[in-house]
Design goal:
Length: about 190
């Protein structure tokens, strides 16, 4: 259980922060930027939740929890030392990716195939979910860049890749099951 009695510590005033293993790094370090973007995604998702109901609301709540798991995973380097840790670090599990895939498949079953690219928008829920999709893609790009430099849990990258797909399909569901999607008309304004 996390206990936060004091919110400010002054330990980051010089531009450094502590990773999950206690090592101090610059706040602009790629790892910090990656898990910071996951946190930004979670905040963006909180806004999207204001506009959804039903099954999507529960699914978004589960994703928000997953994103905290992902942040915990990304803030803890040295995967090879996990077995030696006093407290095993929390790592994203492939079962969380499997759940996203099952939800994507279920949502896709009720959607007509796309015949054009979609413009972000339509309903408020759809617009917010498209914003979540783009932030998820940015988090994925940063995490992939980090994975090229350091060992990461492969499920972390896979989860972010699947999550942006999930947001895309959920945005279509939120646009009257795709019937209110705003379609791109190539060259319409020439």
């Amino acid at each position: 259980m996390v206990v936060l009695n004091k919110i400010y510590t002054r330990t980051g005033d010089a531009g450094q922060t502590a990773l999950g293993n206690g090592v101090r790094v610059e706040k602009h370090a790629l790892r910090v930027t990656a898990y910071g973007t996951v946190d930004e995604l979670n905040a963006t998702l909180g806004l999207a939740r204001l506009h959804v109901t039903g099954a999507l609301a529960g699914q978004l709540a589960a994703i928000q929890n997953d994103l905290f798991d992902l942040g915990a995973d990304l803030c803890r380097p040295d995967m090879e030392k996990d077995a030696e840790a006093d407290h095993p670090p929390l790592r994203l599990d492939p079962v969380q990716v499997d759940r996203l895939e099952a939800e994507i498949d279920a949502m896709n079953e009720v959607l007509e195939p796309l015949r054009s690219f979609i413009l972000p928008g339509g309903s408020a829920a759809s617009a917010h979910l498209h914003l979540c999709r783009t932030v998820a893609r940015r988090a994925e790009r940063l995490t992939v860049e980090l994975a090229a430099q350091e060992a990461l849990n492969p499920a972390a990258v896979t989860y972010l890749n699947r999550l942006s797909d999930w947001f895309f399909v959920a945005a279509r569901i939120s646009n009257d099951h795709g019937r209110a999607d705003m379609l791109w008309e190539p060259g319409a304004n020439r």
